[in-house]
Amino acid sequence: MGRSRLEAFSDGVFAVAITLLALDLTVAGPEGTGSLTDQLQEKWPAFLAYLISFFMIGVIWVNHHALIRQVTKVNRTLLFLNLVLLLFVVLIPFSTAIVADYFSRHNWDTRVAMMIYGGVFLGMSAAFGAIFEWTLHGERMYQPLPPEQHWPARVRFVSGGLIYLAAIVIALVSDVASFVLIAVTAVYYVFERTPSSPGASDGGDEEQPVT
Amino acid sequence: MGRSRLEAFSDGVFAVAITLLALDLTVAGPEGTGSLTDQLQEKWPAFLAYLISFFMIGVIWVNHHALIRQVTKVNRTLLFLNLVLLLFVVLIPFSTAIVADYFSRHNWDTRVAMMIYGGVFLGMSAAFGAIFEWTLHGERMYQPLPPEQHWPARVRFVSGGLIYLAAIVIALVSDVASFVLIAVTAVYYVFERTPSSPGASDGGDEEQPVT
Amino acid sequence: MGRSRLEAFSDGVFAVAITLLALDLTVAGPEGTGSLTDQLQEKWPAFLAYLISFFMIGVIWVNHHALIRQVTKVNRTLLFLNLVLLLFVVLIPFSTAIVADYFSRHNWDTRVAMMIYGGVFLGMSAAFGAIFEWTLHGERMYQPLPPEQHWPARVRFVSGGLIYLAAIVIALVSDVASFVLIAVTAVYYVFERTPSSPGASDGGDEEQPVT
Amino acid sequence: MGRSRLEAFSDGVFAVAITLLALDLTVAGPEGTGSLTDQLQEKWPAFLAYLISFFMIGVIWVNHHALIRQVTKVNRTLLFLNLVLLLFVVLIPFSTAIVADYFSRHNWDTRVAMMIYGGVFLGMSAAFGAIFEWTLHGERMYQPLPPEQHWPARVRFVSGGLIYLAAIVIALVSDVASFVLIAVTAVYYVFERTPSSPGASDGGDEEQPVT
């Protein structure tokens, strides 16, 4: 099983999922009630959720590539873990659509929607963590992480997951606070430059020769 | 006709089909009847069918790659057989949506839906078997299967197809039993490690150098 | 402009278009009128049109690849001609859906639908012919077609286009006859082995080493 | 972070976005009011908008490739800028659908629709300009643009953006004039041969060896 086709298939899924996000950006059109401006204004949570989910998928794709290009050997376990990761990636347009649909209600349903939104990101984060854990064992990386960095890296991963878990718990009380937490996390990931962050072994913004 | 573009096209179709699966995961939204939780609970067969079909497509993709990377020569017959395989892969979101729509009814329509669901997997299995058969003749593989393993491999393939045939026949009597059989088959394929299984010539969970 | 990315982009469009075909295969579901079997039976033109369009896109993809892999130099004219080809490929799911919607009516609208269906294939055929014509000039092919074969090849191309033109004209009188003509053409292309057919320079069913 | 996977992911997004454009080309079908010919005639703005957006995405894809293949080093800033570009590419089917829906109204909503249509192209143009600006600094290109050409190139880029800005401003007064301006721009870009245009360093229609 070559790494290149694992990447090609994953890239395809990432590309389709990120593009399908925009399918939920629809307006009722001239037959609907209200002017186009009104319809768009009502839809602002859909646009915001689109933006957040777009960059979330983008960040996962960047990290996925940074990690997988280090992999020396592909086996069925990695393929399966990768499928689980993609399973959650593919669910992002669905969870984004639910948030967009229910956001302006600010009732219990909105909070359930936010829990699902956070839950899909939590699942994705867990699957990515499992792939990372897989890379730590055996001689599976070209440049293996030194053993003394395993636990710090794991702690960082669990912290990432804890943010999504916090967003889920906070959604029980406030959908807005939960949404803000996930939005801030997305912005943080986009601008994050920590060279030592897992999957960012290409040294943050250091430039890398093309491979 | 290069193998690489056959793989690229097939990967694209697999990636789009696996992502389109999630398009059927929709809820009626705030305008629909019932809370979001109710709507999601009613939709559980859709989620379960999504999960099964997702891993089915994932497994086919893994096996497709394991088989095609062994192919030394691409001809029009292989391209045609591959198209037939993709024809059934592309039908999976459709058959999954039908099962999801009719599952909770438990009437004759549900059984018809299960027969279609099993039928699409049967067609896919037959097309994959035909590609495998094609690889057995001529010098079409880098590491051809020894002749004495041809019949055992064929028997395994026919067995796989017989499971889907059984699921179709069982659906005449019980849609639930048919669904459980296909679900168990999906789980089996995901966790299967048999190194000698056709298309799994990369040795189950043995690690393989990246090519 | 590398050929590899031209192929990658084209493969992506072919893969998405062939998969989107199946999006039109929907049934009204339990809320619709009639049993699932009835709904599926009513939909048979959709399934037949899906089948024909699927293999048409498949055949174009095969021929596209066979032609493009021979190209030594990529310029803006080729990119533009390729975009025009893809424009028609992307229209195939649309024209297929129209035929599927109107086929069982057998009225003037059905004939208009068939004219659109044939028209999209005609446009595609013309665009492919233009790409082929482009390859005949300059030193644009690794194995250029000998000059004495230029006119026979052009005649074959125009013949192909004439079939679609005939299908459009016949649709003025009989939608069924037009549909049968296109269906027969699709079957012919799938099983065609003519080694000298343009774009099939890989010798029909002769086996080719993997490149 | 290899350039090849940046290209693969971007190609996937371009391919899906260009194919999704056609999803908006639907007719009400036999249940709708009016004959198929009437329905198609009413839909002509959708077809025209489809055509324009198709070639716009095609042109961006060509320019994107011409620019990225020159890049020697990929860093997180480029990945982020590329994501922003793709964000606008993915919005094109949405803005195209809005124009198609509102075009025949010729009221304020149509002008808002045209402003959104122009706005998405403006955003895309700005993101592409930012990527181009990024390539000017450090040793990021195999064949860096000579310093004395930096400002002329920037002026050309800003001019391109100014056209979209003009289309947005003109839309305040006339939706038709705004639409014509964007249509003319699309046609211009398709037939443009300026060898010195940024991202067209492959020399307009000069033929390039395949890489």
Describe what this molecule looks like in 3D.
- 4 copies of one chain form a homotetramer.
- Chain A is mainly α and 211 residues long.
- Chain A has one domain (3-191).
- The first copy, chain A, is built from 7 helices and 2 strands, in the order H-H-H-E-H-H-H-H-E.
- Chain A binds chain B through residues 1-5, 8-9, 11-13, 15-17, 20, 23, 71-77, 79-80, 83, 86-87, 90-91, 93-94, 97-98, 101-102, 105, 108-109, 112-113, 116, 138, 140, and chain B through 7-8, 11-12, 14-16, 18-23, 25-27, 29-30, 35-37, 40, 51, 54-55, 58, 61-62, 65-66, 69, 190, 193, 200, 202, 204-211.
- Strand 1 (73-74) of chain B pairs antiparallel with strand 2 (208-209) of chain C, so a sheet runs across the interface.
Give a nutshell description of this structure:
By secondary structure, chain A is mainly α.
Catalogue the unreliable spans of chain A. Answer: 194-211
Helix content of chain A: 55-70%
Whole-number radius of gyration of chain A?
A: 19 Å
Total count of helical runs of at least 4 residues of chain A: 7
The major β-sheet of chain A equals: none
Oligomer type: homotetramer
**Helix/strand order of chain A:** HHHEHHHHE
Mean pLDDT of chain A: 84
Total strands of chain A: 2
> What global shape of chain A is seen?
globular
Counting structural domains of chain A, the number is 1
N→C terminal distance of chain A:
20 Å
Sheet-strand content of chain A, in percent, reads under 5%
> What is the largest interface, and how many residues per chain?
A-B, 43 and 43 residues
Secondary-structure class of chain A: mainly alpha
